[in-house]
Specification:
With 186 residues, this protein is α+β, with helices and mostly antiparallel strands. The chain has helices at residues 11-23, 36-46, 95-109, 124-132, 182-185, and strands spanning 2-5, 52-57, 60-69, 79-86, 114-120, 136-147, 150-160. The protein contains five helices and seven strands. Pfam families: Acetyltransf_4.
């Protein structure tokens, strides 16, 4: 299994993996499958600043993961949100773990301190996966999205991957190292 940076040319294969999460489940809160062109634009929008990775075996894309800003304000620059989607035939084979280990290593190089994930409350496998990867549930929002005829909640999970500034009680806090865009690392 190899992991490489995604490209817009991967969009159609990534959509094959993502489509069931939209059409057949509440894993994604999207209602309609994006076009290949829209998905290409999403990849292009993320890559300058954050990693967007694919896992490949025998020229077949098994899954993908990407990071993006946790929030728009400057104070959030050391926090990122991550997402992972694995093809049905590749689930349970360590693909998600390898993608997350790689993306977290890259985010550390970018001076990201906190990584978050938002998981729908019905996606128990993803919640368990994140907890296995060291993420802790930090928030739950009941009935926050409506899909497939019902209200669904979300869990926010968080993992500290970088050096946190000391608490005020210990010593004065110091600003973390500046965020480094992904394009500066590759």
């Amino acid at each position: 299994m190899q992991i490489r940076t995604a490209s817009p040319e991967d969009a159609d294969k990534l959509l094959e993996i993502y489509r069931p999460h939209i059409e057949n489940s509440t894993t994604s809160f999207e209602y309609e499958v994006p076009s290949v062109q829209d998905f290409q634009q999403r990849i292009q929008a993320i890559l300058p600043n954050y990693p967007y990775l694919v896992s490949i075996e025998n020229d077949h894309i098994l899954g993908y993961a990407y990071a993006h800003p946790y929030g728009e304000r400057k104070a959030y620059q050391w926090s990122s949100e991550v997402s992972v989607y694995i093809g049905k035939d590749a689930q349970g084979k360590g693909v998600g773990r390898r993608l997350y280990e790689t993306i977290e290593d890259i985010l550390k190089q970018q001076n990201v301190v906190n990584v978050t994930a938002c998981v729908t409350s019905e996606n128990e496998n993803s919640i368990a996966f994140h907890q296995h990867m060291g993420y802790e549930i930090t928030a739950k929002f009941d009935d926050i999205g409506f899909k497939n005829g019902k209200w669904i909640g979300t869990y926010w999970l968080k993992k500290v991957i970088g050096r946190q500034a000391a608490t005020q009680a210990e010593k004065p806090q110091q600003e973390p190292a500046p965020f480094i865009p992904f394009s500066k690392l590759i």
